Amino acid sequence: MLYREAGQFKATYVEDSQIFPIRQDKVGMALILVVAFAGIPLLSLTGLMTDYFFTAILTPFLIFALATLGLNILTGYAGQLSLGTAAFMAVGAFASYNFILRVDGMPILAAFALGGLCAAAVGIVFGLPSMRVRGFYLAAATLATQFFVVWILTKIGWFTNYSSSGVITAQKIEMFGYTFDSALSKYLFVLAIVALLALLAKNMVRSNVGRSWMAIRDMDMAAEVIGFRPLRTKLLAFAVSSFYCGVAGALFAYAYLGTVEPEGFSLDLSFRILFMVIIGGVGSILGSFFGAAFIVLVPIGLNILTGFLENSAGISLPSGISSSIELMVFGAMIIFFLIVEPHGLARLWQIGKEKLRLWPFPH
Amino acid sequence: MATARQIGEVIIDLRNISLRFGGVKALTDISFDVREHEIRAIIGPNGAGKSSMLNVINGVYRPQEGEIVLRGRHHRDMNTHAAARAGIARTFQNIALFRGMTVLDNIMTGRNLKMKSSFLLQALYWGPAQREELAHRRKVEEIIDFLEIEHIRKTPVGRLPYGLQKRVELGRALAAEPSILLLDEPMAGMNVEEKQDMCRFILDVNDQLGTTIVLIEHDMGVVMDISDRVVVLDYGRTIADGTPDEVRGNQDVIDAYLGVAH
């Protein structure tokens, strides 16, 4: 009843090829943006939202969503499996750090963009094996990126400015004389970047470049025959994907952790982002946000739940067990998801919308 | 069958093509030509090398011997990109559509070589990039109209029945506005009605756009009806070449299809 597109006719191709062709989607997206950019900051001014919301939930959610988006471009759209996401994030973070450290007056956004470009360059180099290998074999090749990048950042002191522990402390985020040091301002800073990059990604996937990625993913032989160049297409996907991951890595260091060491960008992080892609929906921009939200929120939710159980129900678990239970439940949920809906939350959302179009009628 | 169209000069000349995979001889010393604007059929029993022949023409396979003369230019072998640029488009025996994409997007991919705007402009989806996208959309919609698939333009091709997928694949090939169209069993697995539709599309393309068509088909009725000349392959060799009537009466062809007592 509410979600019905009846009567919304498209008379031009411009109207028909919009990102949100249906009015309800447009309104919904506008609402989300208003809430994210204005509603939540206003709420926090009233003191209803503590810093915890920003530092532990919203900011990491946005940063992970960006990294997931990056991996989704490569794996979901272009069909190239990668386990090197965290390595590309590390390149972005450490490159940005060095640009700000070593270039006087380097604007922070330019440093992040350059960090992303460095990640893109590394992505292109490590994407070269995709010319010959695919699937699991490519995943194994990108695994090399993961270990190589972390190793080189640890071994060569220059990257960490010869810090004895290998830990770098991210500089302050400063722009136009304003310092983003409160939790809220960092959140807004991240939000703006993520919203912009998500829009660009959406534009890419609805243009020729996005079609070239999907063509290579679905049938590389036919893609070649109609004129796409496989190597160029794959390397572009690696570059764009790594750029997104690089910027996410820079934000991870600057707006989330503050201090970071190369080991922080471990294989574990790569896997977490791969899970976000799988749970959110392979080959979906929206799914990247769903997946990141799921993986960020579920552990927190489980944590609260076990805490609640211990306090109110009087069940006291030994401290080691409660955290293990969290991991086990988490693992079980991932397996459940893979079996029930292998196309992820984005597909569930799609199905929900189809149902909503008909509701309250059966068909 | 041929109406007003004028069969022109030789556009593809295949000379002494031999193709081997290891010790297996797929094609042995095959020569034939294709003239501009004609419908040229390649027939033969299973495993005769028909698909290999198409793969040689558009550069998927590289023959060990022979040469390909395309519009008077000699090539030792073709490569897929050069073939696409030279105006050769094709469909595949086992449908090779992009299954995760909609019909519209699939056909849009056929126009990729004509899209010029840079990747950054596409990311902004702004100005020239948007105008280009929309101009190509208009062209693609013409093809969608022609193939009578308006109702499924936003459907992912993976969900379509076989006959429609074949039609979409033809659409993707047509989107490139090819001068030469290679069709690998466009009517395989279709019912009579679908075959009639497909024949109509092929004849219209040939007649109205003047597209040269090289066709592999097993349905002899169709082949004899619509093609101007037929080449017959068996065990990787040419056994006959000529008009449908000449080929029909050829003893070698009859033997190849019906078998011969040894």
Radius of gyration of chain A: 22 Å
**Name given to the CATH architecture of the largest domain in chain A:** Orthogonal Bundle
Kindly report how far apart the N and C termini of chain A lie. 12 Å
CATH architecture of chain B: 3-Layer(aba) Sandwich
- Helix share bin of chain A: over 70%
- By DSSP, the count of extended strands of chain A is 4
Q: How many helix segments of chain B?
A: 10
Largest interface: A-B, 29 and 39 residues
Quick overview:
The complex is a heterodimer of chains A (363) and B (262). Chain A has helices spanning 13-16, 23-45, 51-77, 85-102, 108-127, 136-155, 183-205, 208-218, 220-225, 230-257, 267-280, 285-312, 319-340, 344-358, and strands at 168-169, 173-175, 178-180, 259-260. With 363 residues, chain A is an all-alpha fold.
Which features does this protein show?
heterodimer; A: 363 residues; mainly alpha; ABC transporter involved in vitamin B12 uptake, BtuC; 2 domains; two-stranded antiparallel sheet; 14 helices; B: 262 residues; alpha/beta; Rossmann fold; six-stranded mixed sheet; four-stranded antiparallel sheet; 10 strands; 24% strand; globular
Can you describe what's shown?
The complex is a heterodimer of chains A (363) and B (262). With 363 residues, chain A is mostly helical. Chain A has two domains: 49 residues, no CATH class; 309 residues, ABC transporter involved in vitamin B12 uptake, BtuC. In chain A, strands 1-4 form a two-stranded antiparallel ribbon. In chain A, helix 7 runs antiparallel to helix 10. Chain B has one domain: Rossmann fold (3-Layer(aba) Sandwich). Chain B is 38% helix and 24% strand. Chain B has ten helices and ten strands. In chain B, strand 1 and strand 2 form a beta hairpin. The radius of gyration of chain B is 19 Å and the shape is globular. Chains A and B meet through helix 7, helix 8 and helix 9 of A and helix 2, helix 3, helix 4 and helix 5 of B.
